[in-house]
Amino acid sequence: TPVTEEVIIGEAGKSVVLMCRNVSERADEVDWFHGDPGAVPPLFSSNATLPEDARLSLVDNSSLHISVLRPQDGGNYTCKEVLNETVREHRVQLLVASGPSNLAVSISPAAALPNGTVYVDKRDTVMFSCTSNSHPEPTMGWTFQPPNSTPETFTEVNGTSTVYILQNLSLRFQGNYSCTARNPLSGRSETSTKELLVYYPPPSVPRCWAQTAQVGLMLQLFCNWPGGYPHPVLQWTEEERDLENSSWVVNATGTGDTHVETLSSSRLLHGKEFKCVGIHILKQGKVEPTCTVQISAPSLATEPLKTCFVGGTVSLTCQVMESNPPARISWLRNVSQPEVEIRPGGRYLVTQEGSVSNLTIQNCSHDADEGYYICKAENPAGLKEAYVSLTVKRLDIAAVTSSSLLETKVQFRSPLGEWRKAGGWKKEGRGSPVAFSVTFICPPAHRNQDSNDVLVLVDSDGEGEEEREEEEATGNSNVHRVTALVNGNSTQAGCGYHFTESKHLALEMHHCTGK
Ligand SMILES: *[C@@H]1O[C@H](CO)[C@@H](O)[C@H](O)[C@H]1NC(C)=O
Ligand SMILES: *[C@@H]1O[C@H](CO)[C@@H](O)[C@H](O)[C@H]1NC(C)=O
Ligand SMILES: *[C@@H]1O[C@H](CO)[C@@H](O)[C@H](O)[C@H]1NC(C)=O
Ligand SMILES: *[C@@H]1O[C@H](CO)[C@@H](O)[C@H](O)[C@H]1NC(C)=O
Ligand SMILES: *[C@@H]1O[C@H](CO)[C@@H](O)[C@H](O)[C@H]1NC(C)=O
Ligand SMILES: *[C@@H]1O[C@H](CO)[C@@H](O)[C@H](O)[C@H]1NC(C)=O
Ligand SMILES: *[C@@H]1O[C@H](CO)[C@@H](O)[C@H](O)[C@H]1NC(C)=O
Ligand SMILES: *[C@@H]1O[C@H](CO)[C@@H](O)[C@H](O)[C@H]1NC(C)=O
Ligand SMILES: *[C@@H]1O[C@H](CO)[C@@H](O)[C@H](O)[C@H]1NC(C)=O
Ligand SMILES: *[C@@H]1O[C@H](CO)[C@@H](O)[C@H](O)[C@H]1NC(C)=O
To answer: Region (Disordered): which ranges (predicted)?
Structure first.
């Protein structure tokens, strides 16, 4: 048997030429066999007419040309040369390679964007599979190319399919995934590339709130749904659309973690409910999460009547009961038209804690401060005003300078004259509560006043006048005896007591032992 001298590789569908090497130019006859000449009939002979198979032809009277190769054309061919009755044979092995073809790539679970890029859910286990037809078996591999980087091969097998599984995906898994199948015989290869994006939905639900714009009195509706990739689509609509009664037609969509819709202010906004729908590409087909915000104009609660003593301090309180967005609270004085907004500073202190605003007036003056105050609360849905009437009463202050309750020295500043303290404080009785008494002599100018003067002892540290204990005031007398019953330890008891007279006399004793 002749030895194989040559191996020729052909590809299915293409043509190939099998040479009959060293053939003599004067050869009488050249015959080709697909197999052993003894075992099979000649496939083609230079002496014969056209062969049965039209794909076969001779080149240079000796080489066999086969077009449109088929896999079954592969095998051992023998070329037989007859010259002067001597026969020479030699052998060519033909290998027919086919493919790769029908390369199929799938990434699942995944969905495709209009531009062909596929996206997966970060939380999923993703299977990358690739199949191909090839003879002989192809070498198949996946490569991954992150943006602006070089590709890296992450799996390679000899076989018609390759499967790779990825878990715990993150953004760094985004990029181009290519599957390549290569025919080891022909070296021909085919590649399919898919761009992959790793998406994830926002972890929670959208949050809505209303706010007043910095400039103007515009209503801003905020809808915030962070933490997703890509950004969600947020859509503001009116919850209950009443087109006939509403000048508000809100249907606005934005892309981003926060979507702000701005509306001009109107009383019609009161009671309106707006809804934000969060739409994320990974939650398509599911119930879209929403949040709503209801707009309400402010309403107010105030104490309409307040009293302050001359030289004293008073706080006017105003509470906004319902207001969305939160109202801006301001204090005004209606001494003139238009009303003047009170600016904090000087004797005015304006503080706000949550929805409660306090206007504190220090060193009350009858002329400057008595009158009406207006608490004004305003948001884009409305405006509310409430009046507070302030009465300023005369106040006499007894300044106590001693360091011990029993040695109290009382001084008076009073437009009515000097009050005098007759004697010192006397401790009365034993045990608890401890009683103290002190006697005052009222100034002559006061004597003709209403005779029902009452001296009231109040604990300025406590809740108003609760600790007031006992007073003794004789009608026409100018002598007032006041007894303080002090609960507990007498050394602490003197701290911050003051006496108030029901009409226009107040004695204040600022006294703290140990301080
Ligand atoms: C063909 O010829 C070459 C040189 O021309 C020679 O080396 C080789 O052995 C020959 N082959 C055969 C089968 O005669
Ligand atoms: C092929 O053979 C024929 C006759 O047998 C001859 O006329 C022709 O010249 C040959 N061709 C070549 C290229 O050798
Ligand atoms: C062709 O010849 C080689 C040895 O030269 C052998 O291994 C192979 O099996 C043969 N092929 C066929 C189809 O007979
Ligand atoms: C072939 O044989 C003939 C006679 O039989 C002879 O004349 C001729 O030279 C031979 N040719 C070769 C190439 O051997
Ligand atoms: C396809 O669309 C996505 C989303 O818009 C984009 O991020 C990506 O770059 C696009 N890819 C190509 C190849 O255009
Ligand atoms: C993926 O390949 C496409 C086409 O070559 C290219 O436009 C795109 O930028 C690539 N994407 C990445 C993330 O490299
Ligand atoms: C695939 O086959 C080729 C040739 O037989 C071999 O060199 C290579 O190592 C094989 N690769 C794998 C991954 O088995
Ligand atoms: C809101 O706008 C979107 C598109 O911008 C539209 O598809 C939808 O029908 C609108 N909804 C209403 C209630 O008008
Ligand atoms: C202030 O408000 C009170 C109560 O409404 C009103 O009687 C008074 O006339 C107002 N004063 C001014 C100056 O507007
Ligand atoms: C309080 O007001 C009076 C009169 O307006 C003024 O004389 C006095 O200095 C003020 N006291 C304080 C502590 O501001």
So the answer is: 460-479
Give residue 507's pLDDT.
40
Closest residue by CA, ligand 8 atom 8: 251
Rounded to the nearest integer, the mean pLDDT of the chain is 79
pLDDT for 445 beyond 70: no
Domains of the chain: 6-97 (2.60.40.10), 99-199 (2.60.40.10), 213-281+288-294 (2.60.40.10), 298-393 (2.60.40.10), 407-508 (no CATH)
Tell me if 100 sits within 8 A of 182, measured CB to CB: yes
Strands 139-145 and 111-112: unpaired
d(C-alpha 396, C-alpha 417), whole Å: 10
Long-range contacts, 103-107 (Cβ 8 Å, 24+): 103/130, 103/131, 103/132, 103/179, 103/181, 103/190, 103/191, 103/192, 104/130, 104/131, 104/132, 104/192, 105/129, 105/130, 105/177, 105/179, 105/192, 105/194, 106/130, 107/177, 107/194, 107/196
CB-based pocket (< 6 A), ligand 1: 21-22, 90
Please report the atom of ligand 7 found closest to the CA of residue 139.
1
251 CA to middle of ligand 8, Å? 6
Cα 18 to ligand 7 centre (Å): 29
105-114, long-range: CB < 8 A, 24+ apart: 105/129, 105/130, 105/177, 105/179, 105/192, 105/194, 106/130, 107/177, 107/194, 107/196, 110/196, 113/197
- The CA 363 to ligand 10 mean position distance, Å, reads 6
Mean pLDDT for the stretch of residues 195-224 = 93
The residue nearest atom 8 of ligand 10, judged by CA position, is: 363
Say if CB 58 and CB 66 are below 8 A apart: no
Structure confidence at residue 41 (pLDDT): 87
Whose alpha carbon is nearest atom 6 of ligand 3? 76
Cα(61)–Cα(59) distance, integer angstroms: 5
* Mean pLDDT for the stretch of residues 199-206: 94
35 Cα: distance to centroid of ligand 3 (angstroms):
9
* pTM of the full structure: 0.68
pLDDT at residue 494 greater than cutoff 50: no
| pLDDT higher than 90, residue 45 | no
